């Protein structure tokens, strides 16, 4: 389970990719509200699965052993790990003799069919990123004015 306040190496990349999807959809005339934008953005395919290889390996290993899943009450996580599990099993069938970590690496770093986020989570992430970007621009402008 993710620890409160923990960040991943890929968080910034995920946030940039999500922000690009939101910005593109905002310009789409078929999206009539931000609620629609976020709902569509989280369903966009993305460059990878936004979970660490270590965490994915822990979960997939438990799944392979038939152990109870500590994330099963979270439908999107369950869906994501189900897809990763399917990909890991397929990769291992095609590449026998390789270690589980190799299969997990390949699965996690392959294109994902969606972000596996709720629209509400996407809205919070985008809001946080935009606020941070605005603060950075204000600081840069203030620094230029002082020099």
> How far is the N terminus from the C terminus?
47 Å
Per DSSP E runs of 2 or more residues, the count of β-strands stands at: 0
Radius of gyration: 18 Å
Instruction: Determine the strand fraction and express it as a percent band.
Output: under 5%
The best one-word shape is elongated
Give, in order, the helices and strands: HHHHHH
> Helix fraction?
55-70%
Low-pLDDT segments, ≥5 res = 1-6
Oligomeric assembly? single chain
Average predicted local confidence, pLDDT:
90
What is the count of DSSP helices, taking H or I runs of 4+ residues? 6
Structural class, by secondary structure, is mainly alpha
How many structural domains in the coordinates?
2
Q: What can be said about the biggest beta sheet?
A: none
How would you describe what is shown here?
This protein has helices at 11-26, 34-41, 53-64, 75-94, 100-108, 119-146. It is mainly α and 147 residues long. The protein folds into two domains: 11-45 and 114-138; 47-113, no CATH class. α2 packs across α6 (119-146). The chain contains six helices and no strands. Mean pLDDT is 90; it is low at 1-6. The chain is 63% helix and 0% strand.
Characterize this entry briefly.
The chain is mostly helical. The protein contains 6 helices and no strands.
């Amino acid at each position: 389970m993710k620890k409160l306040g923990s960040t991943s190496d890929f968080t910034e990349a995920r946030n940039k990719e999500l922000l690009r999807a939101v910005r593109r959809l905002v310009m789409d005339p078929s999206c009539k509200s931000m609620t629609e934008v976020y709902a569509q953005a989280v369903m966009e395919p993305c460059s990878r699965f936004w979970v660490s290889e270590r965490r994915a390996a822990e979960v997939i290993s438990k799944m392979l052993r038939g152990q109870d899943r500590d994330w099963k009450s979270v439908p999107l996580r369950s869906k994501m790990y189900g897809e990763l599990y399917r990909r890991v099993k397929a990769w291992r069938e095609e590449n026998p003799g390789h270690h589980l970590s190799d299969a997990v690496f390949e699965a996690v770093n392959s294109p994902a069919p969606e972000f596996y986020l709720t629209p509400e989570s996407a809205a919070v992430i985008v809001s946080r990123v935009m606020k941070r970007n605005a603060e950075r621009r204000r600081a840069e402008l203030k620094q230029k004015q002082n020099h």
